[in-house]
């Protein structure tokens, strides 16, 4: 075990964090590591260590560079050899095909591949506590063998945790129209077409292991805050799914403007636009979209006449329709490198966010007060869409109900035509339209988001409680 007392006499808590191989997981884990390190006091020092595979180190480093005052250590462990997966592809954001994404996810959740390297890593680091991603379901056993507490960090919200738990249950009702209804769930009732859910035969098994681990763990930390999901936070705690819960979000990258030339260039471009006039488009770091659909989106953005900033995954290898870039060059910008979404959304020129409903993106929109047009792609994003639109009223569905088949499998998702994209943007961003109404609501949530992280706020209190509980567990083992 790590030493209990530092040279200055303060207690030390050594925490090892284990994120999944996805940028959308690594980001909040890194921000949590920074928050833990920053929570140190004269009487207690938190040593935060984040463990990733070699190809994922630059992601962590780029985030830590924005937190020069915080001390977080990076350690590495080998990515498993996976048949068919190109060497160096160790992150869902680098997966060029759905098959590669599946290979990464299967590797991450295969105990025979991952547990040995994690056991070696944990024993070498000798932490006082482990904070693990939910896919690494063996982490609780490793922690138990070493006699240290294990906390699961859930990088999505309480609403989706509850909904997915119920939707994946054996008694989730499947209606005649092949729609799954979550039992029992507070208003509004959650009904999701099966095409918008992961393969139930596979994920019921995976989720069963996840839920067993959550129940066995010392506690559960969630990247949300009570002002956003109060009743769902209360439900998850009250229904006894976990021993302890800590709602510590939003764990987000800084909204400060980028400083390097390539990134400051698009912030400079936004400076030339009117308030609330620009639509920002981003489908996150790992959502796959067909080239045909990207073409229709491009043409829809053009037809809308709205200024736009569009982040396109480098792995897409997509070329816009002939002549399109020339036609929109005066009012559109494509970003093919990593985009600092929080800084973009915080700019007053941005009036709408066309999003895939990934949880990090939702938190970024909430923190910056930007209403959303929703276009979910996979996994819990279709459930997150219900929270945004039906519960919170801060977003609107891009493609209306009944317009066509939406699917978690992007190859089966019907093509959304350019005309529908343009129509949705024009309606949403019309003066006095849905976007303006929703902006008022999301600005109120932005205030609550900032308050949660302020000293004395709900998330700050839960973060301190997490550190204190882990420190007490360590002292109890002494």
Give a brief rundown of this model.
With 478 residues, the chain is α/β, with parallel strands linked by helices. It folds into two domains: 11-253 and 451-477, Glycogen Phosphorylase B (Rossmann fold, 3-Layer(aba) Sandwich); 261-449, Rossmann fold (3-Layer(aba) Sandwich), CATH 3.40.50.2000.
What features would you describe in this structure?
This protein is α/β, with parallel strands linked by helices. It folds into two domains: 11-253 and 451-477, Glycogen Phosphorylase B (Rossmann fold, 3-Layer(aba) Sandwich); 261-449, Glycogen Phosphorylase B (Rossmann fold, 3-Layer(aba) Sandwich), CATH 3.40.50.2000. The protein contains 17 helices and 16 strands. A seven-stranded parallel beta sheet has the order 3-2-1-4-5-9-10, with helices on both faces. Helix 1 crosses helix 2, helix 4 runs parallel beside helix 5 and helix 10 (291-304) packs across helix 15 (418-428). The radius of gyration is 22 Å and the shape is globular.
Keywords, please?
seven-stranded parallel β-sheet, 478 residues, Rossmann fold, 2 domains, six-stranded parallel β-sheet, alpha/beta
């Amino acid at each position: 075990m790590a030493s209990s007392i530092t040279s200055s006499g303060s207690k030390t808590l050594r925490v090892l964090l284990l994120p999944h191989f996805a940028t959308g997981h690594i980001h909040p884990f890194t921000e949590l590591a920074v928050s833990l390190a920053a929570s140190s006091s004269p009487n207690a020092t938190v040593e935060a260590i984040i463990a990733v595979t070699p190809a994922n180190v630059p992601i962590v480093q780029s985030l830590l560079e924005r937190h020069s005052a915080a001390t977080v250590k990076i350690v590495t462990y080998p990515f498993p050899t996976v048949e068919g997966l190109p060497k160096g592809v160790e992150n869902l954001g680098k997966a060029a095909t759905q098959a590669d994404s599946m290979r990464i996810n299967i590797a991450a959740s295969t105990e025979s591949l991952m547990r040995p390297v994690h056991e070696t890593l944990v024993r070498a680091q000798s932490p006082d506590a482990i904070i693990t991603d939910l896919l690494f379901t063996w982490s609780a056993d490793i922690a138990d063998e070493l006699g240290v507490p294990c906390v699961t960090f859930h990088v999505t919200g309480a609403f989706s945790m509850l909904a997915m738990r119920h939707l994946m249950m054996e008694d989730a009702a499947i209606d005649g129209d092949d729609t799954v209804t979550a039992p029992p769930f507070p208003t509004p009732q959650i009904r999701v077409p099966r095409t918008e859910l992961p393969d139930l035969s596979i994920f019921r098994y995976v989720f069963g292991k996840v839920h067993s681990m959550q129940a066995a763990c010392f506690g559960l930390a969630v990247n949300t805050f009570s002002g956003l999901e109060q009743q769902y936070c209360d439900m998850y705690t009250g229904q006894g799914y976990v021993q302890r819960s800590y709602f510590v979000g939003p764990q987000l990258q800084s909204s400060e403007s980028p400083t390097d030339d390539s990134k400051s260039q698009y912030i400079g471009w936004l400076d030339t636009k009117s308030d609330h006039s620009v639509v920002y488009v981003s489908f996150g770091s790992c959502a796959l979209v067909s080239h045909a659909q990207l073409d229709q989106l491009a043409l829809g953005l053009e037809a809308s006449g709205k200024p736009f900033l569009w982040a396109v995954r480098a792995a897409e290898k997509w070329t816009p329709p002939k002549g399109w870039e020339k036609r929109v060059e005066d009012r559109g910008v494509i970003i093919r490198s990593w985009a600092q979404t929080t800084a973009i959304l915080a700019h007053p020129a941005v009036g709408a966010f066309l999003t895939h409903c990934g949880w990090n993106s939702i938190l970024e929109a909430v923190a910056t007060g930007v209403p959303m047009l929703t276009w979910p792609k996979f996994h819990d994003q279709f459930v997150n869409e219900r929270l945004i639109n039906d519960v919170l009223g801060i977003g609107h569905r891009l493609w209306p109900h009944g317009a066509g088949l939406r699917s978690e499998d992007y190859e089966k998702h019907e093509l959304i035509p350019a005309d529908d994209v343009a129509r949705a943007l024009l309606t949403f961003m019309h003066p006095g339209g849905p976007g303006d109404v929703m902006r008022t609501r999301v600005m109120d949530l932005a205030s609550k988001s900032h308050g949660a992280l302020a000293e004395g706020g709900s998330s700050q209190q839960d973060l301190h409680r997490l550190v204190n509980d882990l420190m007490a567990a360590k002292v109890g083992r002494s």
